[in-house]
Amino acid sequence: MLAAASRLFAAQGINATSMEDVAAQAPVSKRTLYAHFPTKDDLVLAQLRALVESGDTLHAVLTREDIPARERLLAMFDIPAPATGPVRGCPFLDAAAEFPDPDSAAHAYARAQKLLMLRLVTDLVTELGVAEPELLAEQLVTLADGAAIRAMTLNDAGYGRHARAAAATLIDHAERTPAE
């Protein structure tokens, strides 16, 4: 059910996907779907959590220790091309946009994931010895989110290359803390 929801949300958006669509795609009865997910909000939240647990997010790249910190930061701008359908960008940005109430569970979860991304980026920037890691981290996540939105809007998975070039410049020219 979650896999079907994930495919449909990516292909058509959350609000354009009905519970009936998910049940048909799963395939399960609507009764079974509603037994597991009493509301669509429950389904969306479960789908976002499953995405995080799958390791198929930027967080997985940002936490890989076998890749240098600079390369992990730049990997935020490698937007995966979908096998089929349009480029969707970031599922957490999508969820926040489709659930605009900041108190809704989906929006709150998306915000938490974005704050986690900021923390991971701040840790990597700190590892690089940047003098003001919080400032550079905010700039990098803003670029990454903007690239994801533009890639989706333009349906161009390669769009991240523009933000990646800007991020490399920011990283390479950031003031470093003096070596002790």
What features would you describe in this structure?
- There is one protein chain.
- The protein is mainly alpha-helical and 180 residues long.
- Helix content is 66%, strand content 0%.
- It has ten helices and no strands.
- It has helices spanning 2-12, 19-25, 30-36, 40-54, 58-62, 69-74, 91-98, 105-127, 133-154, 160-173.
- Helix 7 packs antiparallel against helix 8 (105-127) and helix 8 crosses helix 9 (133-154).
- The longest helix is centred in the middle third of the chain and has 23 residues, at 105-127.
- The protein is elongated.
- It starts with a helix and ends in a 7-residue tail after the last helix.
- 31% of the residues are buried.
Helix and strand topology:
Layout: H1 2-12, H2 19-25, H3 30-36, H4 40-54, H5 58-62, H6 69-74, H7 91-98, H8 105-127, H9 133-154, H10 160-173
Helix pairs in contact: 1-4, 2-3, 4-8, 7-8, 8-9, 9-10
Give a concise summary.
With 180 residues, this protein is mainly alpha-helical. It is built from ten helices and no strands.
Secondary structural class: mainly alpha
Query: Which regions have little confidence, pLDDT < 50, spanning 5+ residues?
Result: none
Written as H for each helix and E for each strand, in order along the chain, the element string is: HHHHHHHHHH
User: Helicity range of the residues?
Assistant: 55-70%
Report Rg.
18 Å
Main sheet properties: none
Shape descriptor: elongated
The end-to-end span amounts to: 54 Å
Number-wise, the strands total: 0
The whole-number mean of residue pLDDT values reads: 93
Q: What proportion strand? A: under 5%
Count of alpha and pi helical runs: 10
